[in-house]
Amino acid sequence: MYSCISCSVPFPLLPSGYLLIMQEQQKKYLCYSYDSLQQLATYVETIHEKEKMLATLCTNPDVPEPFVPLHELSMRIKHADVVQCITNEPLMSYLQPIIHTNTGDVFAYECLLRSQRFSPGQLFSVAQQTGLHTFLDRRAREEAIRSRTKIKKGIKSFINFLPSTIYNPEFCLRHTFSIVEQYNVAPEDLVFEVVETEKIVDIDHLKNVFATYKRSGMKVALDDVGAGFSTIDMLTLLQPDYVKIDRHYIQNCDKEEEKQAFLKEVTRIANTLGIHVLAEGIERKEELDYCREIGIPFAQGYYIGKPSPDPL
Question: Could you give the domains of the chain?
Answer without folding.
Answer: 17-69 (no CATH), 86-300 (3.20.20.450)
